[in-house]
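Researcher: We plan to redesign the surface later, but first we want a full-length starting point. Tokens attached.
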């Protein structure tokens, strides 16, 4: 141990320490992860609509699964299961990742296939195991709800559309 201390002490140790510090700083500068902002400005009407849609089981084909079914806000944004359960009791191949701070991830889904939260939000609706639906079914069901339609129109000029649903949930 004394030999190592002598070997890396003095000027050689200082140079090595500086090289590690400078090199590490450059690596951190290229890191895609940024610190969480101290404050985020959100539109209250869009947040309220997103919350309602996040908990709405009409997004699924059979009316049994909402986003909140697998991303339970009372348990860390996950379902605490080894694999998540979708429509008709079907088991997926992975578990649901947390939704907490997920908008700051540089990729979405466990495999990173979605580049943004908005891109991710539409995925489960179309997945045959998760929600097994499509936009025509979802919009057909949701547009029959006058209160939801009015709420969407108050939050988005275009009203209840695929884009407004995705944006509100994201």
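Model: Full-length starting sequence:
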């Amino acid at each position: 141990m004394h030999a190592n201390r002598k070997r890396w002490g003095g000027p050689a140790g200082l140079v090595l320490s500086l090289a590690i510090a400078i090199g590490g700083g450059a690596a951190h500068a290229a890191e895609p992860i940024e610190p969480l902002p101290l404050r985020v400005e959100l539109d209250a009407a869009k947040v309220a609509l997103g919350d309602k849609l996040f908990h709405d089981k009409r997004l699924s084909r059979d009316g049994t699964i909402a986003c909140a079914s697998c991303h339970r806000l009372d348990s860390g944004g996950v379902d605490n299961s080894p694999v998540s359960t979708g429509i008709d009791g079907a088991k997926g191949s992975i578990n649901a990742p947390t939704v907490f701070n997920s908008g700051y991830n540089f990729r979405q889904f466990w495999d990173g296939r979605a580049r943004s939260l908005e891109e991710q939000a539409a995925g489960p609706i179309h997945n045959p195991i998760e929600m097994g639906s499509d936009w025509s079914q979802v919009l057909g069901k949701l547009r029959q709800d006058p209160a939801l339609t009015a709420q969407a129109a108050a939050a988005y000029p275009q009203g209840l559309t695929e884009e407004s649903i995705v944006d509100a949930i994201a």
